[in-house]
Amino acid sequence: MASLVAPPASRTPSPTTAPGPPPAKEMVWIPGGAFRMGADDGYPEEAPARTVAVDGFWIDRYQVTNARFRRFVKETGYVTLAERAPDPARYPDARPELLVPGSVVFRPPAGPVALDNHYAWWDWQAGASWRHPEGPGSTLDGRDKHPVVHVAWEDVAAYAAWAGAAIPTEAEWEFAARGGLDGAAFAWGDELAPKGRMLANYWQGRFPWQNLAADGFARTAPVGSFPPNGYGLYDMIGNAWEWTADWYTDHHAAASPCCAPRNPRGGSESASVDPADPAVVPRKALKGGSWACAENYCQRYRPAARMGHAIDTGTSHIGFRCVVRPGE
User: Fold this and answer.
1) How wide is the angle at C-alpha 160 spanned by C-alphas 309 and 32, nearest 5°?
2) Is residue 302 part of a domain?
3) Which residue stretches, if any, does this entry annotate as coiled coil (predicted)?
4) How many domains does one find in the chain?
5) Which of 24, 65, 118, 149 is 20–30 Å from 318 (CA)?
6) pLDDT category of residue 2 using cuts at 50, 70 and 90
7) How many other C-beta atoms lie within 10 A of the C-beta of residue 275?
8) If we measure between CA atoms, which residue out of 169, 176, 166 comes closest to residue 324?
């Protein structure tokens, strides 16, 4: 777990070597320690940069893939939130046609649009789910190694419980994403594309209409398609946003929520965890950015970047990975 101060001198440090064999295949030991979390020169919600300490933990080398999630569903019979008809009492003001299974899908406009309205490129689509990432008619053919998307908070929590794991805290996630490069802008250093080399799956071109796909991928990529960071972790930047376990709170007023479309069924978003008001939808913190982050809009393909997202909403660019903490 994390604390918001540097560890005292008497604190027993996490072992630099793993305390035993990995608890699951393709998990990597992160030794823990103190680091500078956040950034003072990024988006407002990233500030202030502060010293944080985390204990050692295991983390998935890769984002959870469609193949891994399919195994979970096959063994448990689990049905994701996007595949279930919502409770009308949860969304009392929703139009009837929205009270059916579905999720939020990226739909590129035909040309330039104003960037102050993300509904110009996000569309709630009946029938969209992890099995049908672009909506009815789309499939997972050829995408077994792509990160699973369209998973809401309760879906990832259920998967983690099945796997005997947990979802990382925001601090654990950022510490792991930095790969030992404390304070660097990106997971690999301070230059986005050194010598023109694409080191993560993000948007090249003028978002949201011109996708040059210079990195080789228009949307998600198979996990591990880009070089790992210093801890041997893949896709900590770009590809798919990742859920963290922390409730989202603004350190300062957040910038435009470019990457986190609201559920069109309604409900006011809040960081509150009080379930007394069914119209309030709490938010968790997302990290890492995605294939839909661009230089001209939403430059959140950085370890310090963060975004609040409603726990009842999946999208075509949000996935996750798991951690295991010794003794838990």
Assistant:
1) 85
2) yes
3) none
4) 1
5) 24
6) very low
7) 8
8) 166
Q: Mean pLDDT across the stretch 277-298?
A: 87
Report the percentage of the chain scoring pLDDT > 70: 86
- 25 inside domain: no
How far apart, in whole angstroms, are the C-alpha atoms of residue 105 and residue 102?
9
Instruction: Give CA angle at 106 (203, 140), nearest 5°.
Output: 95
Tell me, yes or no, whether 75 lies in a domain. Answer: yes
Torsion of CA 302, 200, 151, 98, to 10 degrees: 90
In which domain, by residue range, is 140 found? 63-328
54: Cα separation from own chain's centroid: 20
Reported as a single tens digit per residue, the pLDDT across 209-239 is: 999 999 999 999 999 999 999 999 999 999 9
Domain assignment present for residue 203? The answer is yes
